[in-house]
Amino acid sequence: MSIVSSISFSLNITRVPFVHWGGIMILGTRPDNIVENIIGAVGHLLFAGVLGIGLAFILGNEVVTSRVYLLKGLLYSGFVWFGIYAITIAFKVPNLTTVTSATALSNFVGSAIYGLVAAEVLRRLDQRLKT
Asked: pLDDT digits over 37-77, tens only?
């Protein structure tokens, strides 16, 4: 997710990569130096971990028995993506209330990749625990 976002940022597709989202939410402004970027990256990774716990809770024991676990991961990531955008607009978070369609699409792709990978990782971990 962060790799896709960073590539999109370096290709000027997106103006706000996920590292900047973390920095803006923690620091209140876009990260300007390496320390602020590290803080933003750590904040983003911690938030992604919390989202993974949420996905594990939602999937529960169904992850191995369900054939649509990838679809559930994708829908979860889409819901989170939409929810985060709605919250930033509702609370008028500086630097995040107005983004380009390319930024929104790039962030959605990153979120979708996260949802698919997280669901697959949870399935594989669950299989390992049961064998």
From this structure: 999 999 999 999 999 999 988 887 666 567 788 999 999 99
Residue 15: what residue type? Answer: R
Lowest mean pLDDT among 28-32, 44-48, 63-67, 115-119: 63-67
